[in-house]
Amino acid sequence: METDPAVHSLHRLHFRGHGLSHTRQAQFEFLSGFLGGRAYYRERFGHMDLREIHAHVPIREADAELWLETFDAALADCEMDGPVVDKMRITLRRAALMLVNDVPDWRVETDREKNLEVPG
Question: What is the pTM of this model?
Fold first, then answer.
């Protein structure tokens, strides 16, 4: 995700927040608990409410789909497949799509100012 120009819009969302190193750590902590391991994220922040975590982030359906594509690519890179991975994909799809919201999208205003094309 960090070097792929095709996912630049997701990259921008993470830089607007706490940055990618924070995102990497938080995703590890969250996914550990989400997938049945130690709930590091809950231990650190007191909850694992995805909507609350992302409440300030403009997430459109195209963003959710793009995130899912990057996750699928990561699974493929790790050669992970099978029924458990298929079930995980279904669960992650449901979670990603429930985060789609109507939070004002600062990317649109920023891109209009720069006369750039905005996806989705």
Answer: 0.82
